Amino acid sequence: MKNKIKNASIQQFDEKGYSETSIQEIVDYIGVTKGSFYYYYKSKQELLKDIHINYIEGLLKEQDQILQNPDKNSKDKLYSIISMIVNSIRTQRQSARIFNREGRNLDKLHFEEIRHKRRKFRLAFQQVIEEGIKTGEFKKGLHADILTFGMLGMTNWSFNWFNPEGKLSEEEIINTYIDILFNGIINER
Length: 189
Description:
Elements: H1 2-16, H2 23-30, H3 34-40, H4 44-67, H5 74-91, H6 93-101, H7 108-135, H8 144-156, H9 170-183
Helix pairs in contact: 1-2, 1-6, 4-5, 4-6, 4-7, 5-6, 5-7, 5-8, 5-9, 7-8
């Protein structure tokens, strides 16, 4: 039942937004009582935090598996992380949108918990770039922090426009991001 409530909430929050969705609408959507809701969640705020936690912890777990793979160099790790983000936007589209759009609705305590996990993800991404610079795989003098913010901003924003049935496939989007990251957009003559 908890997952049923969470899934209904994800759908409602995605369609109408967190602020515009009431607990009553969530329970009506799945045909249960408010008592069922409150058995699993103390508040709508706690539910929103749960949605955020599930999404970011899934990404952190996958990212950690990529980072721990001794057979991947820095370039391969970045490719895999970017692929993972775009894939999560395709496979968990509604949760990705809620995660990227509704964080502003988390109360301060919940926001700090999520912010800590987001920071952990970002710093691990940045560490891959720093390692690539250190080993000579990437150019010296790059600002790993700025590259990280730029790449995560670009890939995470895909939730807003990426359509799996659209003109470009997931793989084409990933390869475009990787090409921009590794080769830029200037045509060297």
